[in-house]
Amino acid sequence: MKKIWFIFFVIFIFACQEKNPFKIDVSNISVNVDIQRFDKDLFHISTDSIERNIPFLQKKYGTFFDIFNYQIIKIGGTNEREYASRMREFRYYCHTYKIQEEVDKNFPNLDEVKSQLISAFQHYKFYFPEKNIPKIYTMISAFNQSVVILDSAVAISLDKYLGQNCQFYKDLAYENYRRMRMHKGKIACDVLQAIAETEFSFNDSTNNLLNTMIHKGKIMYFLHSMFPETADTILWDYSEKQYRWCEKYEGNIWKYLVEKKVLFINNTFEIRKYTEEAPFTAAFANVSAPRAGVWVGFKIVKAFMKQNSKISLKNLMMEQDYQKILNFSRYKP
User: Fold this and answer.
1) By C-alpha distance, which of 122, 113, 123, 92 is closest to 190?
2) Which residue, of 65, 131, 154, 246, has the fewest CB within 10 Å?
3) How far apart are CA 27 and CA 81, in angstroms?
4) pTM beyond 0.85, yes or no
5) Residues 6+ apart with CB under 8 A from 42
6) What is the DSSP letter of 42?
């Protein structure tokens, strides 16, 4: 009798475990992830040899070097008379505040990041075989942009991923909810999210809360597809408590949005309350998870894909009829 109950218990456990719909075999997909350590090349040049090394940096990094100078640290072009002194000031600032030292300490190599990027890009090529894998540059930007998308490359500011307890971030008064995502485990996710947001931009011709929710839900569905083995809390930048809150109150969130008739509001400020980064979702209690509207949008998209199994991820990402996604999802939390 005990054996029967044990077998029943095991069967029950396996039955209760939902199969991961995002898990696929990509072991036969070969990708080349080329990461170039621009941060090391720039900061390991001695201060008094910057002028002599400008041609080397220009030749090796091309357009990216220009974008770094003009748009990221904003010191102007190499042909300007004050360029070398401005670069020295930038270098001096990073040395004085030990930014470079912390980057070198936290990223002696990028083996872990590269492994995560290879896996993500294998999934990317599985779903989008026509897409090219971008070249990756790493940089120190003095806490500027985390990820910068270029024509055929991606630049990553390593100084934005030094760990949520990094003293720099506390000194800069970064809020806890922002610091939660500032660790090396988020780099690959942020790269793929930036690519998705660039490749599949939002059609805001009929901007309202529902459309924003579903569009951002599509981006999250894309991320789940690229990172099927990554913890949901990391993908969502949620604590365990926040994640459980979303799971528990999904039905209540949807009911609130419907009953309060806010799904079709087009006020940008109000839309952000439900969909943007914050400590919590302002419309709900301060124990709520942030971006509760995006959570529901993701669940709508997930239901849509389950109901329409012949639709590919590519078709989903190209679909901009958000009402159609809702209608054909048969979403019932």
Assistant:
1) 113
2) 131
3) 52
4) yes
5) 57, 91, 139, 140
6) H
